[in-house]
Write a structure and sequence with these properties.
With 205 residues, the chain is mainly alpha-helical. The chain has helices spanning 10-17, 34-40, 44-54, 58-71, 76-88, 92-104, 112-122, 126-139, 143-156, 160-173, 178-191, 195-204. Helix 3 runs parallel beside helix 5 (76-88) and helix 8 (126-139) packs antiparallel against helix 9.
């Protein structure tokens, strides 16, 4: 199952992930938005890599973006997209190098902190995932999605009360995430032996 989307249906997982891969909703500031990344990309290799990534041709995107990074090692957009495509291909460890560059090079691509947390989660590096999510919370980067991912990390750490609070917060930030959040809360209630409450949550999903 791809990355951290550990729900039982692909429909639920996809509903959450829409918009994250291309970095929608990055706050204004020194960081780039996804639109700015694609529009301002200067090199032919980078433009090709972004185009291939967008339509799901990940092998072609990987080749073009690897070339783009080699041509311009200081490009934060090339770093971001290369890290994103590696993560899509489940090369989570490989994606970390590029995603770390994406948030440290200028202009920083701050939405990459979500991708960093995602990759750390997939590698079971939960404390590092939470550190990345501290940044997304402080900078208000995709707050609904960030809170949802935090809930998943906390649930893996068996911090069920905190996880439930994160899922509730995610719902308040983005009502479209209500179904996936209720599913995860129901799963937590089941883990805690609260079967009646879990059943009621599952019934509403």
């Amino acid at each position: 199952m791809p990355t951290w989307r550990i729900v039982v249906t692909a429909v639920i997982a996809t509903a959450f992930w829409v918009g994250v891969a291309l970095g929608a909703g990055v706050p204004l500031g020194t960081e780039m938005s996804a639109a700015a990344l694609s529009v301002s990309a200067g090199s032919e290799s980078l433009q090709k890599g972004i185009a291939e990534f967008t339509i799901g041709n990940y092998e072609e995107a990987l080749e073009a973006l690897t070339r783009a990074r080699r041509q311009d090692p200081k490009s934060s957009s090339a770093a971001y997209y290369l890290g994103a495509v590696k993560k899509k291909m489940q090369d989570y460890a490989g994606s970390l190098v590029d995603l770390k560059d994406a948030v440290t090079l200028l202009p920083a691509v701050k939405v990459a902190f979500i991708d960093l947390a995602d990759a750390y989660f997939a590698l079971s590096r939960y404390d590092e995932a939470l550190l990345a999510l501290d940044v997304t919370e402080r900078e208000r980067i995709e707050p609904g999605q960030s809170a949802f991912l935090r809930g998943l990390v906390l649930a893996k750490q068996r911090r069920y009360g905190e996880a439930t609070a994160s899922f509730e917060k995610s719902k308040s930030f983005d009502p479209k995430l209500g179904t996936v959040c209720d599913y995860q809360i129901a799963a937590i209630l089941q883990q805690e032996g609260k079967f009646r409450e879990a059943r009621d949550r599952f019934t509403n999903v």
